[in-house]
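STRUCTURE:
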C-alpha cells in the first residue's frame, strides 16, 4: 500500500502522466481492463491471486496493444526475461523507482522498451 501511494505521488507530480485507476490484485486488475482504457499499465510483482507472468499473459490476451511495465523489488535477470517473454514492455526496479519510473512510462508509451536492473 505504501509503495502504491509513493507511485501515485510521483505520477501526480508529472504534468504529462495521468493516473487513471489502481488495483490491488490480479483479479481487480483484470476487472479494470473491462471498464477502462489505458495506454500503459504499471504492474507490481508479486500481487495477490493471479500474478507475474501469468497475469501479464492474461492482460495481453485481453488487450494485446496495452503496454505493461513491471515494477518490482525482485531485480533478477531471470525475472526480467520472464516478464518480457510474457509480453511486458518495461521492467523497473523499486530501488530506482523515482529515477526510472517516469522515464519508463514515457518510453514505453511511445512504443519503446525500458529495463532497469
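SEQUENCE:
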Amino acid at each position: 500500500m505504501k509503495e502504491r501511494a509513493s507511485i501515485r505521488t510521483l505520477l501526480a507530480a508529472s504534468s504529462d502522466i495521468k493516473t487513471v485507476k489502481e488495483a490491488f490484485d490480479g483479479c481487480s486488475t483484470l476487472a479494470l481492463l473491462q471498464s477502462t482504457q489505458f495506454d500503459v499499465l504499471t504492474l507490481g510483482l508479486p500481487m495477490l491471486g493471479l500474478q507475474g507472468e501469468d497475469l501479464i499473459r492474461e492482460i495481453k490476451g485481453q488487450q494485446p496493444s496495452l503496454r505493461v511495465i513491471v515494477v518490482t523489488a525482485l531485480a533478477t535477470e531471470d525475472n526480467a526475461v520472464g516478464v518480457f517473454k510474457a509480453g511486458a514492455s518495461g521492467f523497473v526496479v523499486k530501488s530506482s523507482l523515482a529515477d526510472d519510473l517516469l522515464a519508463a512510462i514515457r518510453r514505453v508509451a511511445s512504443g519503446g522498451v525500458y529495463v532497469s536492473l
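REMARK: The first strand starts at residue 40 and ends at 45.
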